[in-house]
Specification:
This protein has 4 domains: 135 residues, 3-Layer(aba) Sandwich (Rossmann fold), CATH 3.40.50; 76 residues, no CATH class; 163 residues, 3-Layer(aba) Sandwich (Rossmann fold); 69 residues, Orthogonal Bundle (Helicase, Ruva Protein, domain 3). The chain is built from 23 helices and 13 strands. β4, α4 and β5 form a beta-alpha-beta unit. The longest helix has 19 residues. The protein is elongated, with a radius of gyration of 28 Å. The protein starts with a strand and ends in a 7-residue tail after the last strand.
Length: 496
């Protein structure tokens, strides 16, 4: 597992004389500045740290634009030193001379305290260097760094100075900016200035929009616009009580700020019974941003190796914390079958996910859903990964009535003009999604005949539907048998 880059870890590596450091970062200049600060603290008598790129070489050394020449020059310098390379990762794969220079440096350095720091957006190390190089990841700015950036900017920027005069403005801006790099934050503030956006709430909204764009550009995560309320979720009383207890213990406002936020929940059960809907309700109730991770995206390879994609998603979620990370259909990416047959990638993804769930320090609430929980490895299900595992069954009679009332209101109808009790009795074995579709189908049928929808329209739609309890009867029995003693029922009634 890669180390997190901090000032202290850098100082320790420089003092220890670690020969090769690879720093993965989204902001090259920010990371170079941190490396230089660490070196100033660790080696006060060292002159300014030289930085190399493939256009300019080392400053004052015109013969060092070629990567091999630059590396040779740095290694030939006498005494202790630290040298930063920004572009070398583009050359070393097809250059055995560069790989040999680095290996000789590691094996023959003796007592020479010299460190080479390679900075890049992402690293794919040559095989011979993978075990020789310490890999560090520079996370996105935390609240303290964002605060320092905004405070240091107010003296030279009247626009920021005016914003920060409002009550609690600094905290509002920091919360809105979590998950943005400093370059992106600066660009968003400049855009707000030229767009004549002067009110704090407008600037905060602009930062939220830019954060959504940044997440979408990353490709791995999806920022979910979430306006769902708990009243739009029928049933699941045990799950709602679980949430209410945490609010009573810690306070809703504290949870919204990430204080004592639970690790997460695993929602398993039958497709169409509201697992995804309840994830949205959790985020909305605790006023937390909702990020969705699709495990299929992790494995498709568009954004790098599966382990890199998962690592990037977890980093982004931590940078945006407190937040809810919604992992949809967890078993599609982490399963016993995939673990046994997928080889190295599947095992590395599983290993990283388990370690991250156990050791994450940032307040990220993981809400995972699964349809076939029996496919998940036992390591994922043990206590400590998730606070609780809930089983969401087909809705019972009372729940079906509530679900009909919810969807009638959402379609613009007054439930009192219908008979939700009769509808509930007529829909035994139906999932919440099937009930929603029956109401929508009834409305469509009535509209096609240019008349108001009636109870009969919904009843006919129910009669034409073969419910999931019939089409997947054997699979549902297996899921219920597995969940009987392994999960907490989300509802406090049977699925009658």
């Amino acid at each position: 597992m890669k180390e997190t880059l901090t000032l202290n870890t850098l100082v320790q590596h420089v003092l220890a004389g670690t020969p090769l450091l690879a720093v993965a970062t989204d902001n090259e200049q920010r990371s170079i500045k941190l490396v230089q600060t660490a070196i100033e603290r660790a080696m006060k008598d060292l002159p300014q740290v030289p930085v190399w790129d493939c256009i300019n070489g080392f400053s004052g050394q015109p013969a060092t634009t070629a990567p091999q020449a630059a590396l040779s020059w740095a290694l030939e310098q006498p005494g202790a030193g630290v040298y930063i390379f920004t572009d070398l990762h583009w050359y070393w794969h097809d250059a055995p001379q560069i790989q040999r220079l680095l290996l000789n440096f590691i094996y023959q350095r003796g007592s020479q305290r010299k460190t080479l720091v390679f900075v890049a957006n992402r690293f794919e190390l040559p095989e011979v260097l993978q075990n020789q190089m310490v890999q560090l990841v520079h996370p996105l700015p935390n609240a303290a760094e964002l605060s320092n950036f905004l405070e240091s900017s107010r003296d030279n920027d009247p626009f920021i100075e005016a914003l920060l005069r409002e009550d609690n403005a600094l905290q509002h801006l920091i919360t809105a900016a979590l998950g943005l790099d400093l370059l992106r934050l600066d660009r968003a503030l400049r855009l707000a200035r030229v767009s004549k956006i002067n009110q704090l709430d407008e600037v905060v909204a602009a930062l939220h929009l830019d954060k959504k764009r940044a997440i979408e550009q990353s490709g791995v995560l999806e920022f979910v616009d979430n306006r769902l309320s708990e009243e739009q979720v029928g049933g699941m009383e045990n799950l709602k009580k679980w949430m209410a207890k945490r609010e009573q213990a810690f306070g809703a406002e504290a949870l919204a700020h990430g204080e004592n936020l639970p690790s997460g929940v695993l929602l398993m059960g039958i497709s169409g019974c509201g697992k995804s809907l309840f994830v949205k309700a959790i985020a909305a109730r605790w006023y937390l941003p909702l990020l969705r991770l699709d495990m299929a995206t992790v494995y498709e390879g568009t954004y790098g190796s599966p382990e890199h994609s998962l690592h990037q998603a977890c980093r982004l979620a931590e940078a945006m914390s407190p937040c809810v990370l919604w992992i949809d259909e967890l078993e599609s990416g982490i399963s016993d079958q995939g673990f046994k047959s997928g080889g190295g990638a599947a095992s590395r993804v599983l290993g990283y996910f388990l370690t991250w769930m156990q050791e994450k320090q940032s307040p990220v609430f993981v809400a995972a859903t699964a349809n076939a929980i029996e496919m998940l490895p036992a390591e994922v299900l043990r206590k400590g990964r998730f606070d609780e595992i809930f089983y969401i069954a087909l809705p019972g009679l009372k729940e079906r009535r509530t679900i009909f009332e919810i969807h009638l209101r959402m379609q613009g109808f007054d439930p009192q003009q219908f008979d939700p009790e009769m509808l509930a009795h007529s829909s035994k074995g139906f999932s919440g999604a099937e009930i929603e579709q029956a109401v929508a189908s009834g409305k469509f049928e009535a509209q096609s005949l240019q008349r108001p929808m009636t109870q009969k329209d919904i009843m006919e739609a129910l009669g034409k539907t073969v419910p999931i309890s019939v089409t997947m009867a054997e699979q549902i029995k297996k899921i219920e048998a597995w969940a009987f003693k392994r999960a907490v029922p989300a509802s406090d009634q049977s699925g009658s």
